[in-house]
Specification:
- The complex is a heterotrimer of chains A (about 190), B (about 600) and C (about 425).
- Chain A has about 190 residues and is of the alpha+beta class.
- Helices cover about 25% and strands about 20% of the residues of chain A.
- Chain A contains four helices and seven strands, in the order H-E-E-H-E-E-E-H-E-H-E.
- Chain B contains eight helices and 33 strands.
- In chain B, strands 1-27-28-29-30 form a five-stranded mixed β-sheet, with no helix packed on it. A four-stranded antiparallel β-sheet of chain B has the order 2-33-32-31, with no helix packed on it.
- Chain B starts with 8 loop residues before the first helix and ends with a strand.
- Classes of the chains: A alpha+beta (about 190), B alpha+beta (about 600), C mainly alpha (about 425).
- Chains in contact: A-B, A-C, B-C.
- Strand 1 (about 40) of chain A pairs parallel with strand 1 of chain C, so a sheet runs across the interface.
Chain lengths: ~190, ~600, ~425
């Protein structure tokens, strides 16, 4: 009895260690296969303004509220217009900062006079909800210097970005951490054409 | 463990009750607040927009203006206050829950728990196993039933539908091509009637499409040519879809360059090139290049006059110096392609460009300098609005699809192959359209829309020059030092038969349902049964061939290196119709239009036909 | 630094040139006479890579501590404090991403999609807990996984579930894992991350659904301990399988079990194997017969599962964005089908139509994805059939046990039971 029991235990041990070994080999080989296809550096989610259609989902689809997508002003592209398509509602006549004239629903753009006839526009990040209304306006009537971007100090870098899933234009992708922003007019993508 | 420490149970109980109640209240408030907060969509400014519209009509209304401003402020305040409330509430709740959990944990650990000892139920083990078995089986059955219920409720055959929708022209366009090839046995007359019949059938379909397209006063071209348009022209290397078969009528069978008989015109081409002419309407296109200059020519095919010359220069990414090429390949070996909207050309340095029918450049780009010891020679192919480029080179072999409109890469499929000098062909297999290419070591097929590899078969070696030929579900690949292979295509392609008696290294084969014609560079021409591989006849010619034969109806036009054309019927026996001479060396493949042959010889371009 | 600035200026100049060459801005950039200097565009940088390595390092350290606490130190208290640390660091500070549970999907996607470049940390977070489990049992679950640790905190008044309920619900993780791998491998979605119940709490920010699901799970865990870990966690499936053959494992008693039954109800997870009575083994003959029957049925179950999966593939494929867009496009003019055309759908269609991508290409892509799902459905179904078959087989085998031992497959190594054992360790 005792002997057979011992044998049984030995057999179980043997089966166990064989299985363990095979699990180990399986895990190791998965690791090995994948190691050839890794990136050492980190990637972060970013959206391509060239593809963006300003559908407004960045404001609603992000796991954070308000969204981690913000409008970022690329000053180099800005024309410092008096009549800013991103600031004013389309049919605005008197160019004042009154609420009825502003396109931004949260008053997140400040307009300051620089010199005649130039005005500077500044996005207040805390107020911006990433709805893209100003981006649409600036793209339609201006230089397109207002662009939606994932703000990396806010983004929690989800494994799968929930805006990317809902984006109709497929504009979201992972970017190398060294180049975490893609501004339209500055990217190298344009010289392909 | 807790014996030494005396825990004030009453205190902790109170703490637990209070924190529990507190958390509950906060939780309730938070939910209410949260629902409110989520309902406010600051981007949704419908009411304000309506009011602003009213204000725009009535700019003097100060009351309205004020109302808007108040409403806007209210909406923003509601949003941001709510946001703040939810956030703060969440932190308060977290603290409340934390205190609750801690107090209950302390209470639990302080209460002396008598370990419960249950009387051991004899059948416990067996019974529980039994009921577990029952429930697991029932659970499994439930899942299966549920899945089947939903599967049958919503079954839509989506996969099949999408696959069909992916080839919208499949029914009309390519069936006609198949019908045509069924007519091999019949004589030219019947074939012409037939093809014109099928063409008119298609024409009615396509015409309606075009008509609906051109409801506006201007005649607007559709995005890409219809089947009828392609068949009426000679748009790519080896004719429509690159298969070496065309159905043009009244092709002359006799001419003589020295006497000028049936030579409509003859002219020189400024820059050298071994590429072949292609034709769209009244325009003929070809290219030429030297180590420093690259040009595309548009020639009026009725008069031989140059309509325009387009320089392929100033292309971003183009290397400063052309890569080294051998003399027998040259800088302009690939044939240009046209879809009647533009003409597309590629050169030995990797420059690709699109030029519209008037000679204006649409786009140009460099695909990266090819590493190729003879020089790039794969010709361009077109399918719908895609320009197909076989770019098999030493560094990174790939098959690419470029948008004909913009030149942007639609897809690019990397291939593990050696350098190839062959050209892609487009085949409608009866189910779908495929792009087939030949290279060392395999013949492979790709989905034209996604670039996904559909199948491949290892059967080639060496420096692959001849392109493929396709007929009736079988694709034929051949190369010197390899083999002649007939491949039955499908998900799992299989070799129908193979033979390595006579192998070609430059000219491509032509295939029909019944015959397969192999032309070798050293002068032997062999005709096989395409289904069985049985040899019908072989014939040796003195001069050898570089030019690829073209089947016009069921007549083969084959030009040897010295410019002599062998015209014969493709049948069980070799029956030469005639052998007219050009008196100039020929490497290129001829192009055909109704009543005309265009042959690019060493220096001159000939138009042959009755004047 | 200077070089960098020059480079930046050059880059900007160059890109402006490109921009000009293309179309030129509608309104040229002004030259300010008042000497106003243009502000720089704000682009806050993301968290550095170094933190990723710190995460991996902390994972290794806390796993080692957890294993030591469970196997050597035998301290429930220690594990409790470790789990508090995990909730704070891996939960609230790291906000729950990347976690081992979700890394399963990264692995699946990387294995089936060579274009996807998997981050090194995802591999580390997938493999390291498995290796530890291979040697020490599921110490990862004990106090390292923030999801488990959070639920463990709420184990206040646990009730024992009937064993058949446990067995039945224990199959759900296999279903979930298979589905998650199927969706990840087809690059459709990461459903584990999407339905992660606790990440909303860790971030103090989520959709209402997420909060609701998480709240329900936490409330449930007051009475049914660790419901997510036991009945949903897909990574737990892998740990469960590996832990069965682990080299060492936590034990209830420090030396020899005296069958005092004190620990019998101490495990809130029902993970203690009770001794079997000799009498019960009398039925071994019928059990053997049943086992033979089952071994014949298992292949059949696998086939039925596979077939069902293949039939169900369209329903599963509809989750994919491309397939959904393709079917919207395909059926948009079909009035016989009542596809609700709300505004959300039309955004997708109009965006697609303005993108200029040929419809045929979309259909071809969608068709190939559906094709993938067809084969995926077969594999998934076969896997589920096997799971059912094997768990039935496992229920038919009677194992003879003398002592109270932890069930190596389901034990989380939380060390609660140890406090109930009266046996003193041998010196």
């Amino acid at each position: 009895m005792n002997k057979s029991e011992k044998r049984k235990i030995n057999r179980r041990d043997f089966v166990n260690s064989t299985l363990r070994l095979s699990f180990g080999i399986a895990i190791g080989s998965i690791g090995g296969i994948l190691l050839s296809n890794t990136i050492k550096s980190k990637t972060v989610w970013q959206l391509d303004p060239a593809k963006c259609v300003q559908c407004g989902r960045c404001a609603t689809s992000c796991v954070l509220s308000p969204s981690a997508v913000k409008c970022i002003h690329v000053y180099d592209m800005c024309g410092y217009c008096d009549l800013c398509g991103g600031y004013f509602k389309p049919e605005t006549k008197d160019l004042t900062t009154a609420a009825e004239n502003q396109l931004c629903p949260t008053n997140a753009i400040s307009r300051t006079f620089i010199e005649d006839p130039f005005f500077e526009y500044h996005i207040i990040e805390e107020l911006c909800i990433g709805c893209g209304k100003c981006v649409e306006g600036c793209g339609a009537f201006g230089n397109g210097s207002l662009q939606l971007q994932v703000s990396h100090n806010i983004c929690v870098d989800c494994n799968q970005c929930s805006i990317a899933r809902d984006c109709p234009a497929d504009a979201f992708s992972r970017m190398a951490i060294e180049e975490p922003y893609t501004f339209k007019g500055f990217s190298s993508d344009d010289d392909e054409v | 463990m807790n014996k030494q420490k005396k825990v004030n149970i009453k205190l902790w109980e109170k703490v637990a009750y209070i924190s529990g109640f507190f958390s509950l209240v906060i939780c309730f408030l938070l939910i209410v607040n949260y629902v409110q907060y989520k309902r406010i969509e600051p981007a949704n400014t419908k009411i304000i927009d309506i009011l602003v519209e009213r204000l725009n009509k009535n700019p003097e209304d100060i009351e309205l203006r004020k109302q808007i401003q108040e409403l806007d402020l209210l909406a923003r305040k509601a949003y941001f206050t709510n946001q703040w409330q939810v956030r703060t509430g969440a932190y308060i709740l977290a603290i409340g829950v934390l205190i609750l959990v801690i107090s209950i944990q302390i209470l639990n650990s302080s209460k002396k728990k008598e370990p419960e000892i249950l009387l051991f139920d004899k059948n416990d083990y067996l019974n529980s196993h039994k009921s577990a078995r029952k429930w697991v089986s029932m659970g499994g059955a439930f899942i299966v039933l549920l899945a089947m219920f939903f599967a049958f409720l919503t079954h839509n055959e989506l996969g099949v539908k999408f696959a069909m929708a992916a080839n919208p022209n499949s029914d009309s366009i390519f069936n006609a091509q198949n019908n045509n090839s069924e007519n091999d046995k019949s004589n030219t007359n019947v074939l012409e009637n037939d093809s014109s019949k099928t063409n008119t059938e298609n024409a009615s379909v396509n015409d309606t499409i075009i008509q609906s397209d051109t409801t506006s006063q201007e005649q607007k071209l559709s995005e890409f040519p219809s089947y009828k348009e392609i068949m009426a022209n000679f748009p790519t290397f080896r004719g429509p879809w690159g298969n070496g078969i065309t159905y043009k009528k009244n092709i002359p069978v006799s001419w003589n360059a020295s006497s000028g008989k049936n030579i409509v015109w003859k002219r020189t081409i400024p820059l050298k090139g071994y590429n072949s002419p292609v034709i769209w309407g009244d325009k003929l296109f070809l290219s030429g290049a030297s180590s420093t200059k690259r040009q595309v020519y548009c020639i009026d095919r009725n008069t031989g006059k140059t309509l325009w010359t387009a320089d392929a220069n100033k292309i971003t990414g183009s290397p400063a110096n052309s890569p080294k090429v051998t003399d027998d390949t040259g800088y302009a070996a690939p044939t240009v392609a046209t879809d009647g909207r533009a003409v597309y050309a590629i050169f030995a340095n990797g420059d690709v460009l699109a030029i519209d029918m008037e000679g204006k450049r649409i786009w140009a780009r460099n695909l990266g300098t090819p590493v190729n010891h003879y020089g790039h020679s794969s010709s361009l192919m077109l399918f719908q609005n895609m320009l197909i480029v076989q770019y098999d080179h030493k560094t990174a072999s790939k098959l690419m699809s470029l948008s004909t409109k913009t030149g942007k890469t639609l897809w690019s499929t990397p291939r593990k192959v050696k350098i190839s000098w062959a050209s892609p062909i487009v085949v409608y297999t009866g189910k779908q359209t495929e792009i087939m290419v030949s290279s060392d070591p395999f013949v492979a097929s790709y989905n034209p829309f996604s670039g996904k590899e559909l199948w491949k078969l290892d059967c080639m070696t060496g420096e692959v020059g001849p392109s493929l030929a396709y007929a009736d579900g079988v694709v034929f690949a051949v190369n010197e030092y390899a083999s002649l292979v007939a491949i039955q295509i499908g998900e799992k392609p299989k070799i129908l038969w193979q033979n390595d008696e006579y192998l070609s290294d430059v000219p491509s084969p032509i295939a029909t349902k019944k015959y397969l014609l192999i032309v070798t560079s050293y002068g032997v021409v062999v005709c096989y049964d395409s289904k069985t591989g049985e040899k019908y006849w072989e014939q040796e010619f003195a001069n050898g061939f570089y030019s690829t034969p073209i089947l016009v109806g069921n007549t083969v036009y084959l030009i040897d290196k010295m410019g002599g054309t062998f015209i014969f019927k493709l049948s069980d026996k070799y029956k030469q119709i005639s052998n007219p001479q050009l008196g100039e060396n020929v490497v290129s493949t001829p192009a055909f239009a109704d009543g005309r042959i265009y042959i690019r010889a060493d220096k001159n371009l000939y138009c042959i036909g009755s004047k | 630094m200077k070089k960098k600035i020059i480079f930046l200026i050059l880059l900007i100049l160059l890109s402006l040139q490109v921009y000009n060459a293309l179309s030129g801005p509608r309104f040229p950039k002004p030259e300010f006479e008042s000497g106003h200097s243009q502000p720089t565009t704000q682009s806050p940088s993301p968290r550095g890579i170094i933190f990723e390595y710190i995460d991996v390092l902390l994972l290794i350290i806390s796993l080692s501590i957890a294993s030591w606490l469970a196997l050597k130190k035998r301290s429930r208290k220690g594990i409790f404090w470790l789990s508090i640390f995990s909730i704070i660091y891996f939960g609230f500070i790291r906000e729950g991403c990347v976690c081992s549970v979700g890394s399963v999907q990264n692995i699946a996607l990387a294995l089936f999609n060579p274009n996807y470049k998997i981050p090194l940390t995802a591999i580390a977070f997938f493999i390291i807990p498995l290796i530890y489990t291979m040697f020490f049992g599921r110490t990862f679950c004990a106090g390292v996984c923030p999801l488990g640790a959070l639920q463990d905190l709420f184990v206040l008044k646990p009730y024992n579930l009937k064993s058949w309920v446990q067995t039945l619900l224990g199959i759900i993780p296999f279903l979930y894992l298979g589905l998650a791998i199927l969706y990840a491998a087809t690059a459709t979605d990461f459903i584990i991350c999407r339905y992660d119940p606790f990440i909303g709490f860790f971030r103090f920010n989520a959709s209402f659904m997420m909060f609701a699901i998480g709240g329900i799970f936490l409330l449930t865990s007051v009475f049914i301990a660790r419901p997510y870990c036991r009945f949903f966690c897909p990574y737990g499936v892998l740990l469960n399988l590996v832990s069965r053959v682990s080299k060492r494992h936590m034990t209830i008693t420090p030396s020899k079990c005296i069958q005092c039954k004190l620990c019998e109800n101490s495990c809130p997870f029902g993970a203690i194997n009770k001794p079997t009575q000799i009498k019960e083994l009398d039925n071994q003959k019928t059990a053997t017969k049943r086992l033979i029957k089952l071994s014949l049925i298992i292949p059949l179950l696998a086939f039925v599962g596979g077939w069902t999966g293949s039939q169900f593939h369209e329903n599963m494929a509809k989750v994919n964005n491309k397939v959904r867009l393709a079917s919207q496009l395909y059926f948009q003019n079909d009035t016989t089908l009542n596809i609700n055309k709300n505004s959300i759908d039309s955004v997708e269609i109009t965006t697609f139509e303005t993108s200029g991508k040929p419809k045929e290409q979309l259909y071809a892509e969608a068709a190939s994805i559906i094709d993938d799902f067809y084969y995926g459905g077969w594999i998934y179904g076969t896997f589920i059939g096997l799971v059912f078959g094997l768990s039935l087989a496992g229920l038919s085998v009677l194992k003879y046990r003398n002592d109270y031992t932890p069930n190596k497959a389901t034990c989380f190594s939380c060390a609660r039971c140890m406090d109930y054992c009266p046996v003193e360790p041998d010196e």
